[in-house]
Design brief:
The chain has two domains: about 10-45; about 60-105. The longest helix has 24 residues, at about 85-105. It has helices spanning about 10-25, 30-45, 55, 70-80, 85-105. It starts with 11 loop residues before the first helix and ends with a helix. The chain has five helices and no strands.
């Protein structure tokens, strides 16, 4: 089931850029908007933990890019890790996730 969702007022320059993007992708503005909203729901639909600003200042706070972010974000993030201890913790967590994926794969679909 679908329903009309929202209307948005945008600056003319933004609309111009959106039209260029839509034309490049061979779709209209409605379809572009729909795709971006659907993509946003896929990326954030399971929820992002709510962090307060003071938590980001806490040195024990550990945050990484979202799993499905473009690999460029991960490359930048990993290349800028300064602590070997943190690097090893991240590495251990990633290996643990890989093991979980392997076990799930073996179980089949």
């Amino acid at each position: 089931m679908t329903e009309k969702f929202m209307g948005v007022n945008l600056d003319e320059e933004i609309i111009k850029q959106l039209k260029i993007i839509a034309a490049r992708e061979g779709i209209n503005l409605k379809e572009l908007h729909k795709r971006w909203l659907e993509e946003g729901v896929k990326k954030h639909g399971d929820g992002n933990p709510a962090f307060t600003l003071d938590q980001w200042q806490d040195k024990s706070m550990m945050a990484v890019p979202a799993v499905f972010r473009d690999i460029r974000f991960w490359t930048y993030y990993i290349n800028n890790i300064e602590s070997e201890k943190y690097f090893r913790q991240l590495e251990t967590q990633i290996y643990s996730l890989k093991e979980l994926l392997d076990k799930r794969w073996v179980r089949g679909f």
